[in-house]
Amino acid sequence: MTPLHLCLLLSTGLFCLGLVAVLARGNAIMVLLGVELMLNAANINFIAFWRFGHPSNATDAPILVLFSIAIAAAEAAVGLALVIAIYKHQRNVRMEDATRLRG
Amino acid sequence: MILLAAIAFLILASALVAVSRRNLIHAALWLVVSWFGVALFFLWAGAQFIGFVQVLVYVGAVSMIMLFAMLLTRQGRVPVEMLTLRAEKRIASGVLLVSAVFGVIAGSILGTDLPGEGTSAATLVTLDRIGESLMNDHAIALLTMGALLTAALIGAVYIASSGEEDAS
């Protein structure tokens, strides 16, 4: 077992924990946190392959991760705005109650 | 290798605690520990700048908006998730499905022959090389990212503030 195996297992575990949060938790904020965990797992994979692989251009992976983090931040802001909009309509943030597309 | 195993244990243990907490504030604070562990992983791998960005963006900013949203949308004094019968079924099927997914991916990772030690080129990336590459080769992507962030934040403000008239 090489360090790269361990890195990939780490990111797989983190991805699966995020997937558990998305599928099993009923609170919209926990679902968003699960999505953030899954994005982090993807970033770990980028950096692991950059560190242990043979990158043709050594700066590509850090820049890709940088853009990924920026998109994750934008996603968190929009997601939490949606959570607040749901809360205004139904006075809770349970996913199973949010079944309507219009307010 | 031992350091990497310790970092992996920190990340996975705190994420597991976070996912299984019913108190949302505790969950968010454990996730901060997990994100900090991811930053330590980036430092370990030699991507120092990414590690610092991870600390700034996740540990600093994203955790704060998560806590703000929890406090804005709480019902009781403490934001706690209610457990219903449907929720238990959902949790059981979700954990079952995710264990299957983990088994398949981990099995294929362990069955793959991966390179052992990395090249030294990856560890020589300095901050000025990242900045140079960002401003030269990836300038259009950087500008697009700025436009995306602006649009996302204006959209977030609009979504969160619309519907005010119905409520009052």
Mean pLDDT of chain B: 86
Q: Which assembly state applies to the chains in this document?
A: heterodimer
> Termini separation of chain A (Å)?
53 Å
Uncertain runs of chain B: none
Structural class designation of chain A: mainly alpha
Number of helix segments of chain A? 3
Would you give the CATH topology of the largest domain in chain B?
A: Four Helix Bundle (Hemerythrin (Met), subunit A)
CATH topology of chain A: Helix Hairpins
- CATH 4th-level superfamily of the largest domain in chain B: NADH-ubiquinone/plastoquinone oxidoreductase chain 6, subunit NuoJ
Into which percent range does the helicity of residues of chain A fall? over 70%
CATH class of chain A: Mainly Alpha
Radius of gyration of chain A: 17 Å
Strands of chain B, total number? 0
Strand content of chain A: under 5%
Structure description:
The complex is a heterodimer of chains A (103) and B (168). Chain A has 103 residues and is an all-alpha fold. Chain A has one domain (3-97): Helix Hairpins (Orthogonal Bundle), CATH 1.10.287.3510. Chain A is 76% helix and 0% strand. Chain A has 3 helices and no strands. Chain A has helices at 3-24, 28-52, 60-90. Chain A is elongated. The model of chain A has no long low-confidence stretch (mean pLDDT 88). Chain B is mainly α and 168 residues long. Chain B has 2 domains: 1-83, NADH-ubiquinone/plastoquinone oxidoreductase chain 6, subunit NuoJ (Four Helix Bundle (Hemerythrin (Met), subunit A), Up-down Bundle); 124-160. Chain B contains 7 helices and no strands. Chain B has helices at residues 2-20, 24-45, 48-72, 85-110, 127-136, 139-161, 164-167. In chain B, helix 1 runs antiparallel to helix 2 (24-45) and helix 2 runs antiparallel to helix 3. The interface between A and B is large, with 77 and 88 residues.
